[in-house]
Design a protein that fits this description.
This protein is mainly beta.
C-alpha cells in the first residue's frame, strides 16, 4: 500500500490591486490538489479584516454555496478549481483590506477520515472616495478671479453653477 500524502495549494487574486471605496471587488480563488489522494467535502470560508464585510461566493460548477461557505464535492489529484468571491466596499472604507480564506478538506488514510487545512490571505488597497468634479465654465459673463466672493449650486444636467455674489443672476435668485 502506497503512502497517502495529502496536499492543497490556494491562490487569491483580486481583480484590482487598488479599488475606490463604494465599488464591488471581485476575487478569483484557485485551489489545487497537490497531493496523491482525492480530497472530499472541501469547504472554503472567507473573512475580512473589516469584520462587518461579508463576501458573496458565486455559484460554480461542482460547487455549492452554503451561507458564507463554498463547498466543493471533491478534487482529484492534480485537479485545480477556480471560484469567485465578491464584496461590496463601503463608501467610508479606505486603507488596506485583508481577505483571509480558510479551507478544510477530507481525505482517507488507512480507511479513516482525516482533515487537511489550508489558509491564504491577500491585501487590497482601498482608495478613499473623493468628490470628483470640474468646473467647465462659470455662469457669469465675466470671470471670477481669486479674491472674488463666489457662490455655487448644483444644477440639473449642467453640473455645478458658480456665480460671483454680485452677479445679477444671483441677486434675482435671492
Amino acid at each position: 500500500e502506497s503512502t497517502v500524502l495529502p496536499g492543497c495549494k490556494m491562490w487569491i487574486n483580486p481583480e484590482q490591486e487598488q479599488i475606490k471605496a463604494g465599488k464591488e471587488l471581485l476575487y478569483t480563488v484557485k485551489i489545487e490538489n497537490t497531493g496523491n489522494c482525492t480530497l472530499y467535502n472541501i469547504h472554503l470560508g472567507a473573512s475580512f479584516s473589516e469584520k462587518s464585510l461579508k463576501g458573496i461566493w458565486e455559484k460554480a460548477e461542482g460547487a455549492v454555496v452554503q451561507e458564507e461557505t463554498l463547498k466543493l464535492d471533491f478534487l482529484e489529484t492534480g485537479m485545480q478549481k477556480e471560484v469567485y468571491l465578491s464584496v461590496q466596499i463601503p463608501e467610508a472604507q479606505s486603507g488596506k483590506l485583508s481577505l483571509n480564506i480558510e479551507g478544510k478538506a477530507e481525505y482517507e488514510q488507512k480507511g479513516e477520515k482525516q482533515i487537511l487545512s489550508v489558509e491564504e490571505s491577500r491585501e487590497t488597497e482601498i482608495l478613499p472616495l473623493k468628490a470628483d468634479f470640474r468646473v467647465t465654465k462659470t455662469a457669469d459673463r465675466t470671470r471670477a478671479v481669486p479674491g472674488d466672493e463666489i457662490v455655487g449650486f448644483v444644477t440639473r444636467g449642467r453640473g455645478l453653477s458658480i456665480h460671483r455674489t454680485d452677479c445679477i443672476n444671483m441677486i434675482h435668485l435671492s
